[in-house]
């Protein structure tokens, strides 16, 4: 009996030591970490389609809808008829899809003078604007992977897609020539295994995998991809959702997230307010954290929420998070023995974030 009590006591001591070590290992309570990708997913995946082939609208788009994943259309405006514009209107307003420009009639920009490139950009944007008045197009995909005059491109688009054929890094070296991987019968990615290989490369590198799709199935356009393979690739991503590996999102959302994440700084404002502003109510109590999240970017364009986490302050159990006086989704999660508050917030220094202890 004596012996077994000693063992129990030793176990208790050991347990207490582990708890202490665990506490020591947790980050300071006011330290914020911005997720590399939304929801602390390991990588980002974007499906982009170009050239506005019929089958993209009749075959591919319904497959994206079935899986509840958004996609990006880089449209060649003269190749879109009324039916396609109608589909794009629904896709952008109701399904979170993106419309970027892929020129008026697929002119390759190195064959155009600067003046004509500029005119082509203005004409394509004007057309998109007339057909989708509620939508702001601000991304571009180069035709035939040929980069245009980036001094003109950058005035109209904050990100442009090229086709280097590799998985892009979490921070692209050039936002005006972001790599994509070409798909379909004429290109490297055409089977489910090819897609899975690209997914795994993105996951292990923490990067951003952008696919360029052209025609689908038996279409007469460039490099058709089997819709069966497209569906299988999305099935695979759906099955993997519980592993929190892949953020399937549009080209523009991932580009915005990447820029915001690299620049965002979270600052706890409690102390500052105490000293600088005597009109503020008492904020020094231990039940509230006031945070400013700022990225120095144009708030009108860079409006994608970032995912953040910070250790749960000592003694807090249930937390409510507000930004700009609106309650935002948050959760408490235990990671490596430390409890964290995880939440999504838009980086905008004017929209203060409140973490409130509900006890
Ligand atoms: Zn094209």
Describe the structure.
This protein has nine helices and 17 strands. By secondary structure, it is an alpha/beta fold. The chain folds into two domains: 108 residues, Immunoglobulin-like, CATH 2.60.40; 201 residues, Glycoside hydrolase/deacetylase (TIM Barrel), CATH 3.20.20.370. Strands 2, 3, 4, 7, 8 and 9 form a six-stranded parallel β-sheet that branches. It is globular, with a radius of gyration of 24 Å. The structure holds zinc ion (ZN).
Mean pLDDT: 90
Q: What is the C-level CATH assignment of the largest domain?
A: Alpha Beta
Main pleated sheet? 6 strands, parallel
Bound molecules: zinc ion
The span between the termini is 42 Å
Helix and strand string, N-terminal first? HEEHEHEHEHEEHEHEHEHEEEEEEE
In CATH, the architecture of the largest domain is Alpha-Beta Barrel
The number of helical runs is 9
Low-confidence blocks of residues: 1-24, 274-283
Return Rg in Å.
24 Å
How would the blueprint of this fold be written?
Blueprint: H1 2-25, E1 33-34, E2 43-50, H2 54-67, E3 72-75, H3 82-94, E4 98-101, H4 114-131, E5 139-141, H5 150-156, E6 159-161, E7 181-182, H6 192-205, E8 208-213, H7 227-239, E9 246-248, H8 251-263, E10 265-268, H9 270-276, E11 288-294, E12 306-311, E13 319-323, E14 326-328, E15 330-335, E16 338-345, E17 353-357
Helix pairs in contact: 2-7
This protein binds zinc ion.
């Amino acid at each position: 009996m004596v012996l077994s009590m000693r063992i129990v006591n030793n176990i208790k001591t050991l347990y207490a030591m582990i708890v202490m070590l665990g506490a020591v290992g947790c980050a300071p309570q006011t330290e914020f970490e911005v997720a590399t990708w939304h929801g602390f997913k390991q990588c980002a995946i974007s499906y982009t389609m170009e050239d506005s082939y019929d089958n993209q609208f009749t075959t591919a788009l319904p497959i994206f809808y079935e899986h509840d994943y958004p996609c990006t259309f880089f449209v060649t405006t003269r190749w879109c008829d009324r039916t396609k514009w109608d589909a794009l209107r629904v896709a952008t307003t109701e399904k979170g899809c993106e419309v970027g420009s892929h020129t008026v009639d697929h002119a390759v920009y190195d064959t155009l003078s600067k003046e004509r490139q500029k005119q082509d950009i203005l004409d394509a944007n004007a057309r998109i604007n007339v057909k989708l008045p509620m939508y702001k197009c601000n991304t571009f995909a180069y035709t035939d992977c040929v980069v245009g005059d980036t001094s003109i491109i950058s005035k109209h688009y904050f990100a442009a897609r090229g086709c280097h054929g590799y998985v892009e890094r979490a921070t692209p070296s050039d936002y005006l020539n972001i790599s994509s991987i070409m798909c379909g019968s004429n290109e490297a990615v055409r089977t489910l295994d090819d897609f899975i290989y690209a997914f795994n490369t993105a996951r292990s590198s923490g990067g951003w995998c952008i696919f360029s799709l052209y025609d689908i199935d038996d279409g007469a356009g460039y490099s058709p991809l089997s819709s069966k393979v497209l569906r299988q690739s999305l099935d695979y991503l759906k099955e993997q959702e519980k592993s929190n590996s892949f953020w399937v999102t549009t080209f523009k959302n991932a580009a915005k997230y990447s820029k915001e994440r690299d620049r965002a700084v979270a600052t706890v404002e409690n102390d500052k307010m105490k000293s600088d502003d005597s009109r503020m109510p008492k904020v020094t109590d231990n039940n509230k954290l006031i945070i400013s999240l700022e990225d120095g970017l144009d708030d009108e364009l860079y409006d994608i929420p970032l995912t953040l986490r910070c250790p749960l302050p000592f003694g807090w159990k249930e937390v409510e998070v507000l930004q700009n006086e609106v309650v935002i989704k948050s959760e408490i999660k235990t990671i490596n023995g430390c409890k964290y508050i995880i939440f999504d917030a838009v980086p905008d220094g004017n929209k203060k974030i409140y973490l409130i202890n509900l006890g």
